[in-house]
Amino acid sequence: MTGPGDGSSTPSGAGDGRAGDDRARELRGRLDAVRERIASAAGAAGRDEPRLIVVTKYFPASDLRILVDLGVTDVGENRDQEASGKAAELEGLLTWHFIGQLQTNKARSVVRYAHSVHSVDRASLVTALGKAVAADRHERAAGGSGTPAELECFLQFDLDRAAVAGGRGGALPADAVALAETLAGTPGLRLAGVMAVAPLGAPPAAAFEQLRRISETVRTVDAAATSISAGMSGDLEEAVAAGTTHLRIGSDVLGPRPGVG
Ligand SMILES: *Cc1c(COP(=O)(O)O)cnc(C)c1O
């Protein structure tokens, strides 16, 4: 068995004190570097700094505790089973953003812990989320706890020109108005804005410019839907220059994802 200070090596992520300290130092260094990049990109673009969502998928709850100590307030997850477990472990310490493709049958679970869903890409999911929020409120009222705020929803668009609808996730830009109207008309959901992942193999700046135009279209439906969720580790500077309001940064804060490389 290993214990604090016994000098034996432990796999990363184990509860060992020394390994934990090393991991805390590593995360602090990475997070500081990302925060500096964001500040300098925002300065260069003359924009306000966007909200930083640290994408913690595949990383253990012990890493999230370190992030809380480092002042991180928002985390992103893309699988319900993993996210719901971590949210239960870290109850009340973080704001949870669901950023992955979402099956309608997972909506009930996701609304229990998520503050926002960034991956709303079809009308059937809007309907499922609306029903899930209503059921969640009913449950909370019956249990004597207060009504939570509305679920913040981002419409995710597929900016890949070669994409077939329903392929990698994300609605077609041509469906923006119809989807925005559906979402804006669903009680319990708040249309926050738009979201996209820049396509591989193309300059991200052009994709983010396209997303900005889609955002303008969505705002013709709801003028308050001003949020733009864009920018990952590899393209955060381009996203900030294009006016993103929510950055989703994973590997540059946490390191390479386990088992993903
Ligand atoms: C994993 C993921 C991210 C984070 O990507 P990194 O390149 O690790 O920063 C952002 N957005 C979505 C939708 C993701 O699935």
TrEMBL record:
InterPro entries according to UniProt: Ala_racemase_N (IPR001608), PLP-binding_barrel (IPR029066), PyrdxlP_homeostasis (IPR011078)
Chain positions with N6-(pyridoxal phosphate)lysine modification: 57
A GO molecular-function annotation: pyridoxal phosphate binding
Region Disordered, residue ranges: 1-24
Residue span, Alanine racemase N-terminal domain: 31-258
Cofactor(s), names only, from the UniProt record: pyridoxal 5'-phosphate
Gene3D superfamilies linked to this entry: Alanine racemase (3.20.20.10)
Keywords: Pyridoxal phosphate
Purpose of the protein: Pyridoxal 5'-phosphate (PLP)-binding protein, which is involved in PLP homeostasis.
Family: Belongs to the pyridoxal phosphate-binding protein YggS/PROSC family.
Name this protein carries in UniProt: Pyridoxal phosphate homeostasis protein
Organism: Arthrobacter echini
